[in-house]
Design goal:
Layout lengths: L3 H15 L3 E3 L1 E2 L2 H9 L5 E3 L1 H7 L10 H14 L4 E4 L8 H13 L4 E5 L11 H17 L6 E5 L13 H14 L4 E3 L6 H10 L4 E4 L7 H6 L4 E3 L3 H19 L12 H7 L6
Parallel strand pairs: 1-9, 2-3, 3-4, 4-5, 5-6, 6-7, 7-8, 8-9
Helix pairs in contact: 2-4, 4-5, 5-6, 6-7
Length: 280
């Protein structure tokens, strides 16, 4: 059962959504979470893709529930700020599967979750009624686990996977938002949508606060905030940057024997001190 400290973090995460645009850098392990917290983040989101890569697998529910939950536990234990967990599609198609996953995520220390409506990478999606039942089960499971204030961010992959005719996608997302709101969702996450006009229309019409996935090529946070977006995350982008540097550094070392790619890195002592006891 969730304790008072965890309930307090859940309340803080809710308050952050009500206070303006919430910026959530995405962590993939305890170390990245610690660095993000020390950078000044008020809350952290996990990235399923980054976690999968760190275990040598591709994204898209290639991990077991137990593997994902263990990493969520490590991340939540490493920081004192709220953590919201990417639980993909809930590790099973039925409402009961999502409920089991939510109970495990709460036990691991999460105070929020993303749950997506895609059955598999690239689609197809659960129809709105099916996904609404899964969200209902998530809400009930959070109450049973002693954390009724769990923030449920309902992710829809209509734009990410190009589901349906382009001109019909916004209406599809809004219909899903209505269904998901009625069964207990607190937010609407729409990765793959970066057109500012469409984002503005969505934020104006959605019954739920809108979360978009930003990064290179997307509007800056200030423009997203002005459009009415309430939450901005960046998915695997930080992990991509870290792994890109890893590849470049290794390639340089192996081909030229030089170290230019390492010149902008923090020194050993600085990073080591960031992981000193009671730092988060």
């Amino acid at each position: 059962m969730a304790g008072e400290t965890q309930k307090g973090k859940a309340g803080k995460l809710r308050a952050l959504h009500a206070a303006g645009v919430l910026i959530l850098p995405n962590a993939w392990d305890a170390g990245s979470a610690t660095m993000i917290a020390l950078a000044g983040a008020q809350a952290i989101a996990t990235t399923s893709g980054g976690i999968a890569w760190s275990l040598g697998r591709s994204d898209g529910q290639r991990l077991t529930r137990a593997e994902m939950i263990e990493r969520v536990r490590q991340i939540a234990a490493a920081v004192t700020i709220p953590v919201t967990a990417d639980i993909e599609s809930g590790y099973g198609p039925g409402p009961e599967d999502a409920a089991v996953t939510i109970a495990a995520a709460i036990a691991a220390g999460a105070v929020g979750v993303n749950i997506e409506d895609s059955r598999a990478p690239g689609g197809p999606l659960f129809d709105p009624a099916e996904q609404a039942e899964r969200i209902r089960a998530v809400r009930a499971a959070s109450a049973s686990a002693g954390l009724p204030g769990l923030f449920i961010n309902a992710r829809t992959d209509v734009f990410l996977y190009g589901i349906g005719a382009p001109e019909a996608r916004l209406d599809d997302v809004l219909a899903r938002a209505d269904a998901y709101a009625e069964t207990g969702a607190d937010g609407l996450f729409v990765p793959g949508l970066t057109d500012l006009q469409a984002i503005t229309e969505l934020a104006t019409a959605s019954p739920l606060p809108v979360n978009v996935m930003a990064g290179p090529g997307a509007p800056p946070v200030s423009e997203l905030a002005a459009a009415g977006v309430r939450r901005v995350s960046i998915g695997t982008a930080i992990t991509q940057a870290a792994y890109t540097l890893t590849q470049r550094t290794a390639t340089e070392l192996l081909t030229t024997g030089s170290y230019a790619e390492l010149e902008q890195g923090l020194d050993f002592g600085t990073i080591n001190n960031m992981f000193a006891p009671n730092r988060s």
